[in-house]
């Protein structure tokens, strides 16, 4: 039996959607549902969903931006804004942008958040790829 605090976190479709071994849509629960919702918000471009054009994260406007401190600051801001707007089950505690040690075309976002219902702190590392300009 699930504790009532965790029930608040809910259940949702596994992302990407797939079938379980019984042929039903596979679901995720509680903290995993929150994490998948965060990833979905960050991977969705604003305007991508016709019936909800404001849903998503503005970070995708930075795909062709140089990987510099200004872009890093904007990425941090866009992530905080999107998660604050679209994921009410969490408080964003911090977002750090780190250079990717494997290449200059990626920015690593280290997102620390707290699940409100349980007060548990978690983090999610999300890679964001830029396309370097031709010079």
What labels would you give this structure?
Nuclear Transport Factor 2, Chain: A; 135 residues; 5 strands; alpha+beta; three-stranded antiparallel β-sheet; two-stranded antiparallel ribbon; 27% helix; 3 helices
Global structural class? alpha+beta
| Residues in helix, % | 25-40%
Strand count, sense and barrel status of the largest sheet are: 3 strands, antiparallel
Are there runs of 5+ residues with pLDDT below 50, and where?
none
Question: Which architecture does the CATH hierarchy give at level 2?
Answer: Roll
Gap between N and C termini: 59 Å
Number of domains: 1
Name the beta content range.
Answer: 25-35%
**Helix and strand succession?**
HEEHHEEE
Descriptive notes:
By secondary structure, the protein is of the alpha+beta class. It has a single domain, classed as Nuclear Transport Factor 2, Chain: A, CATH 3.10.450. It contains three helices and five strands, in the order H-E-E-H-H-E-E-E. The protein has helices at residues 4-7, 30-43, 69-86; strands spanning 11-13, 27-29, 90-99, 106-115, 120-129. A hairpin with a 6-residue loop joins strand 3 (90-99) and strand 4 (106-115). The protein is globular, with a radius of gyration of 16 Å. It starts with a helix and ends in a 6-residue tail after the last strand.
């Amino acid at each position: 039996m699930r504790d009532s605090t965790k029930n608040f976190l809910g259940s949702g479709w596994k992302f990407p959607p797939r079938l379980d071994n019984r042929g039903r849509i596979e679901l995720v629960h509680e903290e995993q549902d929150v994490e998948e919702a965060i990833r979905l918000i960050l991977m969705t471009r604003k305007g991508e969903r016709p019936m909800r054009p404001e849903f998503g994260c503005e970070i995708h406007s930075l795909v062709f931006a140089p990987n510099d401190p200004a872009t890093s600051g904007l990425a941090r801001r866009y992530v905080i804004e999107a998660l604050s707007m679209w994921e009410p089950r969490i408080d964003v505690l911090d977002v750090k942008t780190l250079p990717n040690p494997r290449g200059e075309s990626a920015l690593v976002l280290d997102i620390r958040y707290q699940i409100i219902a349980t007060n548990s702190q978690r983090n999610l590392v999300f890679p964001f790829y830029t396309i370097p300009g031709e010079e």
